[in-house]
Each structure stands twice: as structure tokens, then as C-alpha cells.
């Protein structure tokens, strides 16, 4: 019998986060207030979000045999993330990300994937047993694109539900979108994909239908403080819209909010919650995460959601 296990295929990096009043412009130096070193990488963050939300998750990723890699192994042990899918590369460095965060919690990020760039189709084939015992695949574009698309093909051949978080955004063949049950871009990624300037919820409704026209099952556009807009098919002119949740405590750090959303959404779908319930669940989780610092470690536990 198929379990409710979720596979995440992505990257682990160590985040070097720097806080300052404003983000520097090109060629500009600003004095920062503080810095932090912690776990990151979209796939890794999503795994922690799934585990904290109550999901059963295993991570397929390639990391280095170094101090940064050991940080990842320690994280997964403490957060109850399955590591049978990990590949430890002896001669490669674990990746890293430089994150700048301003006083409003907005960020700009440079990611160097490191060992993650070597994740290939053969390695996915070596982990096929994980596909056989899982019900959902969540992946994105931080791993090599051909590996991401191949992973979606393997998942569909095994009848898994597929979630693609197209971040950072790259162009892929339109045919590949037919492998995706749920596409979860933010408004910037959706704008580039659909050539629609998304500023309002109505803009997102137009973009959502364009995404469904590509062959995607369901479009879910996350819009930060504006909330989330879900388009269920090409004829869904209204969509399901949920504003972000307001809490008394202010937004501190938006890094990883999209990862928390995706992880919580995968968890909800794995538990066969309805689409509406799944969106509310993941929207709550993301709204909670921006009230804490950090990427992976800002993910809320299920009792808080």
C-alpha cells in the first residue's frame, strides 16, 4: 500500500544572511546590523517545513563531504527528514547562499549550488525505490533543469502527484509542464512565465489561466503579503483567492516563506485535504514563517499552524 510519503528533490546550501537598513545598489557598500549562518536551499527548506507540518518526507540531494555538509546531516537528524536519498560527494563543496535582508524583511539572494549541480538522471534512477513508496514529488529549478524534468517524468510514470516550484525561473519546453499537477510560482516567476505584469489579484487570475493553458493541472501563484491565488483550470476565471493572515507581530524576514508554503501544501495534499483546505493550511504556515528569522528554521510546527 502506498504511503503518504513525500519526496523532495532539491539542494542544500548554507545561508550567510546579512541584515541592514537597506539593500545595496550595484557598486554600493552599506553597513549591516547583524549576520547569521544557517541551513538553506529551497529543497532542504521545504523538507524541514514538511516534517514540522507533520508530513513524512525524504530528501534526494547531493552535498559535499565537508563542514557545511555535516550541518545538513545534523539538521535532518534533528528535524526527522529522511536521508536515504542523499548523495555525499567526496570531491565537491556543499553550496552556499549570500542573502541580504533590509529593514522591511525583503531580500536579495545569490545562490552557489556547489555539489548540488552534479545531481544527474543516473542518481535519480539509483533512488527509484523512494518513488515506489511515495505519493508526492516536490521539486524546483535549483537543481539542473534536465534532472528536474527527468524527476517529474519518473514521478508521473509511478503515478505520483507532482508539485513544481519554478524557482529560480528558467525557460523549459512547454511539453514539460504537462508533467506538473501543481505549479507554484511567486508573482515574479509567474510574470516572466506568462509575460503578464502581475501587480493585482486580477493580473494573477489572467496569469493563472495562461499557466493552465500550458498543460499544468493547477496554478498556485504566491504573492507575498497579498496572499495566494489558485487557478484550477483554463476556464476558472475567478479562482480561489486567500489573503495572507495578519498577526499582531510584524514581518521580520521573508526568506524561505515560499518554501514553507510549498512544504505545507505538499503535506496537506499528501493527507488528502481538499484543495481549499490545503491552500489555507499552507497560507497559514507561510504567514507564520515571516514572523521568525531564518529560512528552514522559520518553518512553524503543526500545532502552531
How would you describe this structure to a colleague?
By secondary structure, the chain is an alpha/beta fold. 32% of the residues lie in helices and 24% in strands. It is built from nine helices and 13 strands. The strands form two sheets. A nine-stranded mixed beta sheet has the order 5-4-1-8-9-10-11-12-13, with helices on both faces. Strands 3-2-6-7 form a four-stranded mixed beta sheet. β4 (56-64), α2 (67-79) and β5 (86-89) form a beta-alpha-beta unit. α1 (42-53) crosses α8 (257-270), α6 crosses α7 and α8 runs antiparallel to α9. The longest helix has 15 residues, at 275-289. The radius of gyration is 18 Å and the shape is globular.
Structural descriptors:
globular; single chain; 9-stranded mixed β-sheet
What Rg, in angstroms, do the CA atoms define? 18 Å
Cα distance spanning the termini: 29 Å
Oligomeric state, counting identical vs distinct chains: single chain
What overall form do the CA principal axes indicate? globular
Mean pLDDT: 93
- Total helix count? 9
DSSP strand (E) fraction? Answer: 15-25%
Q: Please identify the structural class as seen in this structure.
A: alpha/beta
The tally of strands reads: 13
Low-confidence stretches are: none
What portion of residues is helical? Answer: 25-40%
What can be said about this structure in brief?
The protein is built from 9 helices and 13 strands. The chain is α/β, with parallel strands linked by helices.
Amino acid at each position: 500500500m502506498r504511503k503518504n510519503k513525500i519526496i523532495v528533490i532539491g539542494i542544500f546550501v548554507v545561508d550567510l544572511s546579512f541584515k541592514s537598513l537597506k539593500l545595496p545598489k550595484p557598486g554600493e557598500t552599506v553597513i549591516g546590523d547583524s549576520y547569521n549562518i544557517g541551513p538553506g536551499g529551497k529543497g532542504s527548506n521545504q523538507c524541514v517545513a514538511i516534517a514540522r507540518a507533520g508530513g513524512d518526507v525524504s530528501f534526494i540531494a547531493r552535498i559535499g563531504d565537508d563542514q557545511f555538509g555535516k550541518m545538513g546531516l545534523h539538521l535532518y537528524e534533528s528535524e526527522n527528514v529522511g536521508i536515504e536519498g542523499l548523495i555525499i560527494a567526496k570531491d565537491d563543496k556543499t553550496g552556499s547562499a549570500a542573502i541580504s535582508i533590509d529593514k522591511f524583511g525583503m531580500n536579495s539572494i545569490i545562490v552557489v549550488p556547489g555539489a548540488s549541480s552534479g545531481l544527474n538522471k543516473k542518481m535519480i534512477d539509483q533512488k527509484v525505490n523512494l518513488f515506489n513508496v511515495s505519493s508526492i514529488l516536490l521539486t524546483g529549478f535549483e537543481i539542473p533543469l534536465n534532472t528536474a524534468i527527468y524527476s517529474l517524468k519518473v514521478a508521473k510514470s509511478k503515478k505520483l502527484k507532482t508539485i513544481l516550484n519554478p524557482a529560480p525561473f528558467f525557460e523549459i519546453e512547454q511539453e514539460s509542464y504537462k508533467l506538473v499537477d501543481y505549479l507554484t510560482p511567486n508573482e515574479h516567476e509567474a510574470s516572466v512565465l506568462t509575460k503578464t505584469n502581475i501587480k493585482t489579484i486580477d493580473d494573477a487570475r489572467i496569469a493563472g489561466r495562461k499557466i493552465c493553458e500550458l498543460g499544468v493541472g493547477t496554478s498556485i501563484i504566491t504573492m507575498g503579503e497579498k496572499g495566494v491565488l489558485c487557478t484550477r483550470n483554463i476556464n476558472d476565471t475567478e479562482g480561489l483567492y486567500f489573503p495572507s493572515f495578519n498577526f499582531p507581530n510584524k514581518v521580520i524576514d521573508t526568506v524561505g516563506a515560499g518554501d514553507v508554503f510549498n512544504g505545507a501544501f505538499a503535506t496537506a495534499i499528501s493527507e488528502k485535504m481538499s484543495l481549499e483546505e490545503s491552500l489555507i493550511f499552507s497560507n497559514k504556515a507561510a504567514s507564520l514563517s515571516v514572523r521568525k528569522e531564518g529560512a528552514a528554521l522559520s518553518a512553524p510546527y503543526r500545532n502552531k499552524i
